[in-house]
Automatic annotation (TrEMBL):
One of its GO terms (molecular function) is diphosphomevalonate decarboxylase activity. One of its GO terms (biological process) is cholesterol biosynthetic process. It catalyses: (R)-5-diphosphomevalonate + ATP = isopentenyl diphosphate + ADP + phosphate + CO2. Coiled coil: none annotated. Pathway: Steroid biosynthesis; cholesterol biosynthesis. Catalyzes the ATP dependent decarboxylation of (R)-5-diphosphomevalonate to form isopentenyl diphosphate (IPP). Functions in the mevalonate (MVA) pathway leading to isopentenyl diphosphate (IPP), a key precursor for the biosynthesis of isoprenoids and sterol synthesis. Residues 188-342 form the Mvd1 C-terminal domain. Pfam families: MDD_C (PF18376), MVD-like_N (PF22700). It is an enzyme of class 4 (lyase). The keyword Lipid metabolism applies. Residues 8-174 form the Diphosphomevalonate decarboxylase-like N-terminal domain. The lineage of its organism: Eukaryota, Metazoa, Ecdysozoa, Arthropoda, Hexapoda. The keyword Lipid metabolism applies. This is Diphosphomevalonate decarboxylase. It comes from Nezara viridula.
Length: 342
């Protein structure tokens, strides 16, 4: 029996992925860029056991047996295919590509609440499976088959997911732009506005946007390509102001696309909009851009800032948004998250 346990962190996109050109292969209509958090805060943990004695593949989520979704099955199939290619012609070939797998997975943060849980989950699953089945080489394209954004969590630091041009998805992979050590002063705060499951999942939201939003087509062909180049330059030059401005504009455009979708997909709530206002007021008072927000497919905010500003920002947030009731307020401010290399 082979047993492997892996941790994988969440990644937060600053240029958002929204919209697929191929639903099956999960090929996006635009490139996206993200920052991977360190594994010590929000992560997924997966243990994979493979054995010639197991009769079938099994999946346990938070220790409860759950059904293997088609996407988990696709990842498993792809890993086995690569394992069998690797084993061809090798001596001591035990045929491990045929061994069944028992997979145990959990997150230390809310699932499907717009906190990028699937990105950490599938990156972790694929990394653990690859280790167990001894598969080497790029795994981002396999993680992508589980959940698009998961391909970016395979790497630390700042990461780019190239949309690629091939119909088979072979060039739709993630690459590291710079390791976290390149910009060590960057921090991320996660403001949990609501950790309930979102009403419109990102898969159906995206599909609806592709079918109905004209703004999405404009975004993919005329906005994202320039923004990607600008933010890459800002990251390379440690230019926080430009980085922050592009991050906020891109989040705003994602949610504009969601509203341009018919029927609209509404992810941000009143508290989210108050956070947006708060960030702009804070920057105005400071006379410079110290803080940036970004929102995924949910109401929770991710704030980017620099280490030197963390203490003051956290104190101000605690005053402006005192944790009150349990259900739908900013319930807690996660400890400042340092982006680290994995
Ligand atoms: O990977 P998915 O299907 O959960 O889509 C994630 C989409 C966003 O989080 C909204 C944006 C992104 O690039 O992560």
């Amino acid at each position: 029996m082979i047993v492997v346990t892996c941790l994988a962190p969440v990644n937060i996109a600053v240029i958002k992925y929204w919209g697929k050109r191929d639903e099956q292969l999960i090929l996006p209509i635009n490139d996206s860029i993200s920052a991977t958090l360190s594994t010590d805060q929000m992560n997924a943990k997966t243990t994979v056991m493979i054995s010639p004695n197991f009769e079938k593949d099994l999946l346990f989520f938070f220790r409860e047996e759950s059904c293997m979704s088609p996407r988990v099955q696709v990842c498993l199939k792809e890993i086995r295919k690569r394992a069998s290619e690797n084993l061809k012609g090798k001596k001591n070939n035990q045929g491990i590509d045929l061994w069944k797998a028992h997979i145990c997975s959990e997150n230390n943060f809310p699932t499907a609440a717009g906190l990028a849980s699937s990105s950490a989950g599938y990156a972790c699953l694929v990394t653990a499976l690859a280790k167990a089945y001894n598969v080497e080489g790029d795994c981002s394209s396999i993680a992508r088959l589980g959940s698009g954004s998961a391909c970016r969590s395979v790497f630390g630091g700042f990461v780019r997911w190239h949309k690629g041009n091939q119909g088979d998805g072979s060039d739709s992979i993630a690459t590291q732009i710079v390791p976290a050590s390149h910009w060590p002063s960057i921090r991320i705060l996660i403001l949990v506005v609501n950790d309930a499951r979102k009403k419109v999942g990102s898969t159906s939201g995206m599909q609806r946007s592709v079918e109905t939003s004209q703004l999405l087509q404009h975004r993919a062909s005329h906005v994202v390509p320039q923004r990607t180049e600008q933010i890459l330059k800002a990251i390379k030059n440690h230019d926080f102001e430009t980085f922050a401005e592009i991050t906020m504009k891109d989040s705003n455009q994602l949610h504009s696309v969601c509203l341009d979708t018919y029927p609209p997909a509404v992810y941000m709530n009143d508290v989210s909009h108050t956070i947006v206002e708060f960030v702009h007021s804070y920057n105005k008072i400071k006379g410079t851009t110290k803080l940036a927000y970004t929102f995924d497919a949910g109401p929770n905010a991710c704030l980017f800032l620099q280490e030197e500003d963390v203490a003051e920002v956290v104190a101000t947030i605690k005053q402006v948004f005192p944790p009150t009731n349990e259900n739908n307020y900013i319930r807690g401010i996660k400890v400042p998250e340092k982006i680290l290399d994995k």
